[in-house]
Amino acid sequence: METTHKNQHSNAAIDCPQAVELLPWLLNGTLESEEREELLGHLESCDGCRRELDEAAVAWQLLNRHVPSLAIAEYAHGLEPSDLSRERLEKHLALCPSCRQEIEFATPDQVVDLDAARIERSIAARRPDHLRRTIRGVAAGVAASITLALVSGAIILDWRENAGTAPNPTAEARPAERHDSKPALGATGVFDDGFESGAITTWSSVTLDDGGIANADS
Amino acid sequence: MNDEELISGLLSGEPETVELVRAWMRASFVPYRSRLASDLEDLEQEILLEVTSALREDRFERRSSLRTYVRTYVSHKCIDQLRARARREWLDVDALELPSSAPSPLDRMASTEMTDLALRILEETPEACRELWQMLREGMKYREMSERLGVAEGTLRVRVLRCRKAALELRETLQGKKTNG
User: What is the pLDDT of residues B14-47, one digit of tens each?
Assistant: First the structure.
């Protein structure tokens, strides 16, 4: 590339080599106003230095090239980058702090979208299939509770029958409660482990507060 | 709720779905809030219109969930906006209105297929040159650069010129390899 082309401005304050050297600072806008005016005056009348300016602008573009913004955003969100290989992108990231910072900013970890989560829940809750699922879920829960109550009752009853020959001070003391104190349907029972079952409609057996056992019809 | 239902809700203007998409967008704006503060409202509106338009024209390729698509789009637009602001600080060669018969050098470099080549040139450029270019990009005057590097101004200007020419030669070499290879 010719940088010592014929200076067409013999009276200019700066010559071609000086003009060519100053071009990067003309492009980054930091020349003092007097120097800038002199350089622009030179460029107006010097074809060779205008070609140099074009080349300097191309070099500027080459050396200030960054990964396209879409590829940065896609990469940050875990997608394959468009129009650029992942390898090329990652090599550039190793060299370019500004692209690295853009990735950091675009990474979803940076965002908190509690609002979105609330709206998503609200939309989902109003959907008919969600309501159907909810009803099915509640029904399944009730069925499971009843089954648990029945199974627990059967186990306790079985244990009582097997242990029937052994003396039971509590049972001996309160025979009437054992056989006659049938709890009303809908009462709240307390199981051996202290779990409060809530309202139940079918009783097999429940333990009383003092540990006595009452049999109930299924 | 699946994406197709959300898309349908958004395209029919269902308020809650629109609000959900806006909430995704606002969450993605958070890292940019301080730097794009005055532009965010317009940007949100613009992105919503563009996303809606892309969905209506079936340009959503379904490479991800709708939420990731929207968030990626927001990041992309915010980065563009910040880059455009930074560019405004630099001289536009075309704005100099100097006589020129050649197409704008910026036009020649604008095509996206040049991106890969430019990134390869940058990779192969010596670190000393990249450092000089970084200082230029930061808007440093040549006097400041010469002070920081501890070299005479004339020496610095010649170094920058050599780096510039080396980058253009590298471009010729890589383009030649591409053409021949």
Answer: 999 999 999 999 989 988 988 898 888 999 999 9
H or E element at residue A198 = strand A196-199
Calculate the alpha carbon distances from A200 to A28, A143, A156, A211, B74 in Å: 81, 11, 17, 19, 54
- Class at the top of the CATH hierarchy for domain B3-88: mainly alpha
B41 vs B33: CA distance, rounded Å: 10
Q: Is some CB atom of chain A closer than 8 A to the CB atom of B118?
A: yes
* Residue A2 located in a structural domain: no
**CATH 1.10.287 is right for the domain spanning B106-180:** no
| Of residues B20, B73, B121, nearest to A119 (C-beta) | B20
Residue listed under structure tokens 């970084």 = B134
Model pLDDT for residues A42-95, shown as the tens digit of each residue = 999 999 999 999 999 888 888 888 899 999 999 999 999 988 889 999 999 998
Q: Is there a single domain that holds both residue A140 and residue A203?
A: yes
Alpha-carbon distance A217 to A182, whole Å?
A: 9
Helix (H) / strand (E) element for B115: namely helix B113-124
Interface test with A, best of B72, B97, B131, B137 (most A CBs within 10 A): B72
Does residue A118 lie within any of the structural domains?
Answer: no
Please give the Cα distance from A52 to A113 (Å, whole number): 51
